[in-house]
Amino acid sequence: MAIHELKEQIARLPEQPGVYLYFNADGETIYVGKARALRDRVRNYLGAYGADSKTDALLSEVARLEVIVTDSVVEALALENNLIKQRAPKYNILLRDDKNYPYLQLTTNEGFPRVLVARRVERDGSFYAGPFLPATFARKTMALTHRLFGIRSCNEVITGKRERPCLEYDIKRCIAPCVDTVCTADEYGRAVKLTQLFLEGRNDELLKTLGGRMADAAAAERYEEAAQMRDAMRTVQTLQDRQQKMATTELGHRDVFGLKMGPAGLVIQVFQVRSGRVVERVELGSEQAIGGTREGEVLEAGIQQFYELRTAPPEVHVPSEPDDRDALESWLSERAGRRVRILVPQRGEKRGMIDLANRNAALAYQTRFNQTTAAQYDALETLQSVLALPASPRRIECFDISTIQGSETVASMVVCEDGRMRRSDYRKYRIRGGSSGPSRLGPYTDAAPVNNDFAAMHEVVLRRYRKLLEQGGPFPDLILIDGGKGQLSAAYAALEELGLANLVAIGIAKKEELLYTRDRVDPIALSAHDPALLLVQRIRDEAHRFAVSFHRRARSMRDLRSELDHVPGIGPRRRRTLLTTFGSVAGVRRATREELRAVVGPKAADLVLAFFASRP
Questions:
Q1: Distance separating the N- and C-terminal Cα atoms of the chain
Q2: Quick check: 457 and 481 in contact, CB under 8 A?
């Protein structure tokens, strides 16, 4: 066995806390672990063969061992977590945050913060709230922050020297920090603090603050401001009264973990309980084979990775005891600045919450690991790897143009989320050929004709994401363009106009089925049976079908207008009557005077006959 070749090195290891790293023959990190006493922990592996299939595979592959000594087990725990995140060893348990639901990001790392819809939590100095389910609740909540507190939604660099506020100020959706004579930086800062209280769900504290400001404004005879505070209080109170969430007076602030393990992987569900209410649900999952892995090891990894970017509440409830519970408690307490306890409830209402979280985890496991869903996740992960994306492309938006010699040019946009088409999010566009607004980009000017495929792609991408900017998202993880380098360049030109060049777009060329990206000179060629290519083709074909269907309807409407719309004295009602009775324009042309008189009267019948008689 490979591990036995390291026996002499293991015997010389220090009896101190630290982290140990196993490497394979290629120099890749394949496992990272921590220990209270490095020599004792690593020496256990010498006799671990036969424990389970995962350990056997690890021991057979080990070629090199390194250790890092730390001052305490808590430091070892933090270092282990960082190394696992950085190196992604294949024998460690790697959990992924559930990305189905969006977060709200209060950009407190900016001088004049905004509220944005975000797909993931990042360590960038911003405040994050969520995830929100259903997803529409995130956008509704963001709109409330504009209406209640006047948080800005624009992308402007705020200097306070703008001449006058924009329309958002006039319709009372922004307090105009861009004009310092209207709103000072301090006033805007107070609005940001209220917004953060609102997003944190600290409604009692928020209502108290709003009530104090209302009283102060009324005493100073600023009645309009006092009325705004009163309306904000009413809205917050209504939201608080309408919350339909599980509640109990005894549960306080805590997180409740549920776990389901199986041959295909594992799912952890975390219920975040605040003031006795389950306010959020977060899912962590892994598709790694976990044969022989203990619950304690999984829960230890789950707690470490879940709280890497979150602050733990005073209590964390788990279904069974995690490995190194004392070290985990110390690490969580140090990060939170107060004591955090990890508990395993055995009875009563608290155990009932654990059982509920376990049932939800079991349901999520069944959904995630059925055969179709597993294939979809494989395709998305392959796309992420091939395109070097920062995250799995769970939301993909695809654009296609349909035209015949510049006639009735239309475009379609279809959406795929987690490998499933979302028909409710489909959109169709008539290409205006110059009404999409000014452009600074030469080949895609607003004077471009509608039969210019590149200009049409530029216009539809510009219109789509200008609208999303106004709505605050959700933005896709990947944009798919039906076409090659030219169409892809047109799409990126539109994104750059909107300041969204950070979005990732690719093009797929017909026939060759090659993927074009902005950063590579040569296209990417995937195997014809690659699940990622099959997924991209399915999305592209759906966009093409949707565009062609819309184009056919547009052409048929044009054909009907080309004949009967030009008959004087025949309006929409009579035109419908004629088409319903005779079936088509050709049927109307063949009808006799008597047949026409019976339908639309003698005068209109003579007009129809005279019109067709004058045409060749």
A1: 92
A2: yes
